[in-house]
């Protein structure tokens, strides 16, 4: 927990005023335990009130503060600055290829639109049972991973397929789709496969694995996508009966 | 508010993907046979000392139906795989997705045209040795 | 506002900066580039053969083939071997993932296929060398 | 001007649940400062209480027992009719969320798993690993997508429009464009969460500033029981991120700079597992008496003796947090912790339906005070509060709107309010003072935690009140550096601070006037509970000169106040 001076090099951009983004440097004293988010607040409070970034929980669970920190997409609130001390300027830029609201804050509208296209909700068998659905511990394990997604957008914004093809659902939305496909309580696997097997669905993934690299929750969207490719293909071969639960 | 759009076309997605994998595996086989046939196999005694591919040698090989099948099959596979792959690359970009129809037609025309071209090219070899 | 300017997408803090790109991404970039190169090669190859084969008899073809033993062509052949083998082996890796094999160990799988590729490439080059210069000319 | 029949302010659990309830019946929209899935509810770890009796050790659990535990936990300040309603509704509400997809952890026979929690007689806290809040939040957001509930995100409610005794709508600041927007409505449900950021060392999210709450307060909506603020004993030193009680449940020690397990002095029997308020007070005493580590404001949570295996197996999340945020691996080193502000028991004064003094204005969740938590909330009851009373307020608001004849009244009031808000904001932007509002914010937080914190007494609180008032005066002299429109954090944080100062004052005044110790309100100068004088809710009503304090009776049904011993 060393202390020392740190220079942040922040990508600034105000779409209403600037033509192109530019870098601006801020030097600040670090203290033990300081996170990148703390550093940004230090700048906001005492150096430049015009800085903009997103934040909320500051505990790595809400997914607001994803940005590119030192060449890698990370959560600002979870990233200690000490690891960057003495390694030159620490560069901060917004999530790649997202519309910028201002500086480090990006617009998530398109991200959530993509998500909404995969029916991101459980459609259980109705009428609902009087109590809970029975789901064994083993069945619950199938969704242990994908439910941990905090929708931070890191993966989809790091996938170049999602950059150039705005129809492509992207890893986050596909992982969400998988989360419901794998849930034993869900009752509409065919609808889900219909959505993800279109040309802007799973086939657009070319296993770049960027999504796996950047996920702050260490999830594996690629694996989910690959599993869905197989499911969709099997259904094509053997017909719809094969996918009914 | 925001309309829930359903994915666009699902005409070829699954098959295009599956075909790319199947053709890939087939290509490995074809390529193996082709290379072996072209460079390592002795077709006739007179070419035994001659490492370079010659017209006669090729013609000789192409006299046999098997090689015709292998070569034409490989050519069509390569074309299908290559152009299908190229199509995938194009459709990774919005601007081409918007011209989907046009691209699909063009690729088919180019593909079939090239195939015919390829077939015609080999005629002299086939007829050359036969005649 | 979308920032699509080259400078910002490929700058030092972007994932396209070489030191920031990870294994999977490199593999994909390589695969895509080699794929496109191969498509281009197919057309080149066809026109190459056609200029020759369209001529009567086949003398031209043989003459053409002679030129392939020039250093430039040998270099081209080497390149082609690298391109084909990389594309084929990484393609195999992709197919494995599609079958659900090795997704969690993608980096390991990549390096294994690359090791095999290296062996094949060296083998291929030796073979070409041997074919072109059977007497072992330097 | 936007118009929706019902507006829900806040996309946390309470807000989403309310919108889900009313949207199918009446046109409803959600307005939220952050996207719903980013809401603070997502940080809740432990679980949500309901007497489902799924755990073999809780076979004979009933809602009555849950109600009793809650009332006793509240130190008898909770309204018992509300508690009964909540505990009775708990089961159905949890099943409902499960049907919508919430991935609860499971028992061996596939039912919702339940774990023991502090202050409860039975293991009745339903959980989904240690991310219950997040899973519930995502599930409810997903449900709202299914119902196509319109969402206006990145908008901060900066004013409430009331005309006579009825609500007309709200004024919002669009964070993206920086423009003020008018939202007209027949009913407004405030579900804006807690205001923990008033305090230093808060476990709450950075946006839990109670901005919507203070806005209502300034427009005449009374606040109830604001002096009751819960402190959690173990929050990470520095960031005050929560270290779950499970760490002590698994056998962790708390030690001071002398290496003593000092809990032996305060609760010889229960040691580290004594109730939250007692442990918090004990730690604070050690720190106050100079036995914090290196004389600093923290002690150590020592898990090393549990061994690597157990830590990895039972407390992986805690280990990750400690490594990520203080660079300490609990396997090798003790974790620095201190008590932190955790929950605001008080809030907008509502009745059992979530209705306030104004017609058409409702409040639910942590920003409201029905009162089910009284003087001290039990762990796992606030998530329950959000869904039960979120649902209820949605229902009641929908009925109110359906039963209403006139619609779209009050355009004049809307416009007047817009002008006032614009003036207020322009005024703030044009101030050219010497004060930095982030310094004022820091001082307010420090004052509140130090002087209206875990231990309170008259001189300290009077000092605090004077400080807060001085800060309010200094606030008049600030400069907002950023005059721009888009995503102006500088302005937003200044606006938040203005409201927080008002609420801080209400907390301090209420606490000063409550001359007893009850639940989380622990006075050194009045150590006993005084049911004769103070079995009452504190009601704070805004006036420009400071809060006006009155009292309202507590509803007692079955459970007569008795000494609270565990
Ligand atoms: C670390 C931690 C752990 C916890 N663990 C548990 C637990 O295990 N069990 C339990 O029962 N409880 C727990 N709690 C308490 C519980 O999480 C909260 O009380 C509850 O989530 C509050 O939900 P809410 O819907 O009222 O508010 P929130 O979830 O805070 O939502 C507030 C919403 O209002 C919006 N908003 C706020 N102000 C404005 C404004 N001015 N304009 C527009 N929108 C606005 C925000 O954007 C947000 O969407 C915990 C709390 C913390 C801090
Ligand atoms: C020799 C064996 C070959 C194998 C095993 C193979 C394998 C593959 C596979 C699996 C893909 C799909 C990649 C993905 O979707 O991410 C692919 C794509 C592609 N292949 Fe091949 N291929 C081979 C030969 C060729 C040849 C000879 C050509 C040229 C004509 C070619 C051109 C392409 C192109 C253009 C693509 C699309 C690139 C992309 O999507 O990134 N391939 N190949
Ligand atoms: S999968 Fe990971 S990176 Fe993608 S949105 Fe979810 S948490 Fe973020
Ligand atoms: S980065 Fe994109 S290409 Fe596939 S593996 Fe991940 S979705
Ligand atoms: S602030 Fe919530 S994830 Fe960083």
Please render the helix and strand layout as text.
The complex is a heterotetramer of chains A (245), B (131), C (138) and D (566).
Chain A: E1 5-12, E2 22-29, H1 36-46, E3 66-69, E4 72-75, E5 90-93, E6 100-102, E7 105-106, H2 109-116, H3 137-141, H4 154-158, H5 160-164, H6 170-181, H7 189-196, H8 210-214, H9 221-238
Helix pairs in contact in A: 2-6, 6-7, 6-9
Chain C: H1 6-10, H2 23-53, H3 59-67, H4 71-98, H5 106-132
Helix pairs in contact in C: 2-3, 2-4, 4-5
Chain D: E1 2-9, H1 13-22, E2 28-31, E3 48-49, H2 63-73, H3 80-99, E4 114-115, E5 125-126, H4 132-146, E6 151-152, E7 155-163, E8 166-174, E9 180-190, H5 211-218, E10 223-224, E11 229-236, H6 246-249, E12 253-255, H7 263-266, H8 276-288, E13 299-302, H9 307-314, H10 316-326, E14 335-344, E15 347-349, E16 361-363, E17 368-369, H11 381-402, H12 411-430, H13 437-451, H14 458-475, H15 489-513, H16 531-534, E18 536-541, E19 548-553
Parallel strand pairs in D: 1-2, 1-9, 2-6, 9-16, 15-17
Antiparallel strand pairs in D: 3-5, 4-5, 7-8, 8-9, 10-15, 10-18, 11-14, 12-13, 13-14, 18-19
Helix pairs in contact in D: 1-4, 1-11, 2-3, 3-11, 5-15, 13-14, 13-15, 14-15
The structure holds flavin-adenine dinucleotide, protoporphyrin IX containing FE, iron/sulfur cluster, FE3-S4 cluster and FE2/S2 (inorganic) cluster.
The site of FE2/S2 (inorganic) cluster (FES) has 12 residues of chain A, from loops.
